[in-house]
Structure formats: C-alpha cells, structure tokens
Amino acid sequence: MSKADPPGRKVLRRAVREQRRDVTLGAVLGMGHQTGEALVPVLIGLAIDEGVVDGDVPGLLLWLGVLAVVYVGLSFSFRWSARAGERAALTTAHRLRTEVIGRVLAPEGGAEEGRLPGELANIATEDAKRVGAVMMALIVGIAAATGLAVGAVVLLRVSLPLGLLVLLGTPLLLWLVHLLSKPLEARSEHEQEQAARASGVAADLVAGLRVLKGIGIEPTAVSRYRRISRQSLTATLRAARAEAWQNAMMTVLTGAFLAVVALVGGRLAASGDIGIGELVSSVALALFLIGPLSEFSWVNAELAQGRASAGRIAEVLDAPRAVSPVAESARAAVPAGTETRPGLPVALRGVSYGPLRALDLDVAAGETVGVVTADPADAAALLRLLGRRADPDEGAVELDGTALTALDLTGLRAALLVAEHDADLFEGTLLDNVTAAVPAAVGGARVSAVLTASATDEVVRTLPDGRDTAVTARGHSLSGGQRQRVALARALAADAPVLVLHEPTTAVDAVTEVRIAAGIREIRAGRTTVLVTNSPALLGITDRVVLLDGGRVAASGGHEQLVHECAPYRTAVLS
C-alpha cells in the first residue's frame, strides 16, 4: 500500500483485509460446493452408463451412493460458506459504520461540513452495508469461477471441442459482463447521492416541523422535499433500469452461450464421439453452468454498487479536519480548576478569523463577562474559536496562558464548555438530559441547584412524571422555552471552569429571564463565565461587558455605563 493513499482508502482496504480469514474460509467451502455441483452431472452420467447401458446393478448402486455423499458434502459446504460470507459482510459493514460515525463525531470535526445529518446517516448505514456485501460477492465470485473451471475440465475429458468452447467462451462472456456493469456503477453512485440528500432533507424537515408550521412556510418546505424526492426517485429508476438491462443482457448472452454448448454436445453424441451417459453429463453440465454465469452477473452488480458506496465512504473519511489534532509529544496538560481558583482565565491575542480582526480580549479567572455583538457573524466566529471548532487565521486563543491548539480537544472541551444557542436534547428522561455530563460523584443537591438556577424546576412541576418525564429525540415533546431551560441546566450541571453561554434565554418570558440571570450569577460564582448575548437582563449581572463591532472591541465597561455612554451598544441591546 502506498504511503500516499488517502486515509479513507486505507480504512477501506484494512476493513477488507481484516475479513481475509472468513472470506478465505467461505471461498474454500464455496469452491467445494461448486465442485460438488459440477460433479453431480458426471456421477449421474456414470450411473446411467453403468446401470442403464451396461445393466450393472452393483455399479449403479455404487455411483448412487457416491452421489449421495457428494450431495451431503456440497450441502454442508454451501451452508458454512454462506455463514462465513454473511459474517464477513456484516462485520465489514459494522467496521465501516463505526469508522464513519467515529469520523463524524471526531473532536476535530469537518466531516459534517456541507452534508445534512440524514445524508451522513445514509452513508453510515446503506453505503456501509453495500461495501460489506462485497465480501459475500467475492466468495460467490471465487466459487462460481471454480464451478466454471471444474465444468470445463470435465467437458475437456468428455470432449475436447466442448472443453475448449467453455474455456474460450467464458472469459469473453465475463469481459462483456464487466463492460455492462459500467453504466450501473455510475448510476448507482448517483442514486445513493440523491437518496442520501432526500433522507437528509426529510430528517431536517421533521426536526423543524413545529417551526415551519409556526412561520407558515410548511407548503414551501413540502414542495422542496417533493422536488428532491422526485430527483431521488428518478435516480433510483435509472439505476434500476441499468441493473435490469444488465441482467437482461447477461441472460441473453448466457442463454446463447449455453445453447451453443448444448448444440455442439448433441452433434458429438449423434456422430458417436460421446456416449449416452456422457451426453447426459454434457447437457446437465451446460445447465449447471447457468448458475455460475448468473452469479457472475450478480457479483458484478454488487461490485459496481460497492465501488460507488466505497467512494462515498472514503469522501467522508478523507474530509479535511476543521482543526488539527495535537500530537501526543507536543500535547500540554489541560488546566483544571481548584477549590481556591475554580475558574480559569481565557484570552484572545490578536485573533483574526472570519469577521474578527486582530481581536484582543481578556477574561479573568472567576469573572463573568458579557459579549455583545453588532453583527451575529462576530458571535458565531467567537463561539467557533472558543469551542475550538476552528482555529484562528492569525493570533491565538489561550486558556490559563496555554494556546488551545496545544491542548487535548476532549479535555479542553470539558474545561472550556461552549453551550450553543441551538443545543439539542436527546431521547431519555429530563433528568438524563440534565445529568449527561455530570460526574457520578456529584450528588442530588447539585442537580437541584442547577434546576433552580435555570428555572427548569418550573418545567419539572408542569410535567406528568416530573424529572422522570420521557423526552423525545431532540426534545420535541417540550416547548421551545422548556427545551432551552433544560439545555441550560445541562450546561450548568457540567460545572466547567469556563462556561460560554450563547443567548440562553431567547425563548423564555421576561420574568423568567430575570430569575435565570440571577441563578446563573449565583451558581457560577467563582467560575469564569462568558455570556454572548444581547439580553439586558443577562448583561445586567455581568462584571463587565465588551461590545464587538466590525470584528474588534468597540467598547468595554459596565452594562449601565455603556447604556448611557455608548450609542452603538444601546442600539444593540435595547433596539
């Protein structure tokens, strides 16, 4: 394997190599099965010659006994060959599914860029399954080739012309089948792309159905899905037509080939060059060859679809990472909070990224700082940098004096937690969602405190089973305000030394927002908190506020001071 091979191709090849044992076992057993199938016509012909033509009853019984043993052997071989093939196919699909999901969930990110969640799910399931099916196709292909070889050898022994006909005609037939698989491969790839896109759009529409109805664009969304679904259907029909055309042509070619074999065998029997038993064996072998040749058609279709799916998997695995992983030798220890200093300082030094320009920002340990942005793009860029979902083009982001680029990503995100505005809930109970990131040693008092601080205790009292109420996937069984409070409670429960909250109260009423602001101030005492928000209620509990305008710090000071002295700030928070 070349060192220049992309990672995705290496993973695919490694996944195939790891199943070498099962594939080899399945192929050997499949070869035994096909050999037995090919010998059955020969044994029938011998039984006819011995028992019918020569009238040798003991000889007839002997060959019938041998035939029975061969039947038992080929049945055993088929069963265990299929079992090994299925195991190899399922194991390969599982391995690739794990690799794709691992790449999508990798801390460095990047694989999800430009792809809908439904599309990624389709690649991790259907495409992985198709590549796994290649393992079975290899076993079937090797077994079919063995059946053809054994059939050709037997025919050579019966008649040289018949044997040469099979040996010369089969490679030509396989070459034609390979040419027929090319359109199917291209159309199968397009079919999978369109199906994945349709799945992704459908998943997004279902997830945002309540929002779509609320703003009255449900008909537009439905129309969009219908258009994409029709495109997917068209691609599927084209792939189906290509597969049907390939199978039809394969049937025609195979039938013509077998007709020639049967015709030649019949003429040889008529001229006395072969006996009755040999003629029966020859015709039966010609019929037997339909199986291996048909299997080659199926194998080619599976390989064509597998190659298309493998390419899509490789694209995900080879997707550029949003941030570079830190080498083990260069990795610095992630700072941790202590009892005397539970919060950690955060700093941006001359950072330029997206709309941010040479931004300098210091947040002291234990300080609560509000960040107001005149442009939402500034907030989005800041959150990406603090969560290290991207690295700055220039400058550095530091945690306790150490650049984020030198810290382990998993440990970093536990120490510096960025709670996005659109955070999702997961299926389970409300309590499960809140305590998802809570260490097992943390007692119930902490959980009760975060429920109170986030005003989630009010939500608990309205639910039928309180904390144990089941929450559906993405929290759609809750209202927008309830989901937002549960997500905030989850972020507060993690008790990170540094917590960055992005607009955590946009879906709650003014009274609840004031209560939440006081709760955040109290429960985060001593820890570093950054509130990226334009909410006056939240900004009022900060130690100081920073206004970002044009990608730079335009003003800094107390909330009340900036309201009275800074017009751009007043416009941002009060308009």
UniProtKB/TrEMBL annotation:
GO terms for molecular function: ABC-type oligopeptide transporter activity; ATP binding; ATP hydrolysis activity. One of its GO terms (cellular component) is plasma membrane. InterPro entries: ABC1_TM_dom, ABC1_TM_sf, ABC_transporter-like_ATP-bd, ABC_transporter-like_CS, P-loop_NTPase, Type_1_exporter. The chain crosses the membrane at residues 23-48, 60-78, 133-156, 162-180, 248-268. SUPFAM superfamilies: ABC transporter transmembrane region (SSF90123), P-loop containing nucleoside triphosphate hydrolases (SSF52540). Pfam families: ABC_membrane (PF00664), ABC_tran (PF00005). Keywords: ATP-binding, Membrane, Nucleotide-binding, Transmembrane, Transmembrane helix. Residues 341-575 form the ABC transporter domain. It is found in: Cell membrane. It is a multi-pass membrane protein. Its main location: membrane. Residues 25-305 form the ABC transmembrane type-1 domain. PANTHER family: ATP-BINDING CASSETTE SUB-FAMILY B MEMBER 10, MITOCHONDRIAL, ATP-DEPENDENT PERMEASE MDL1, MITOCHONDRIAL. This is ABC transporter ATP-binding protein. It comes from Streptomyces antibioticus.
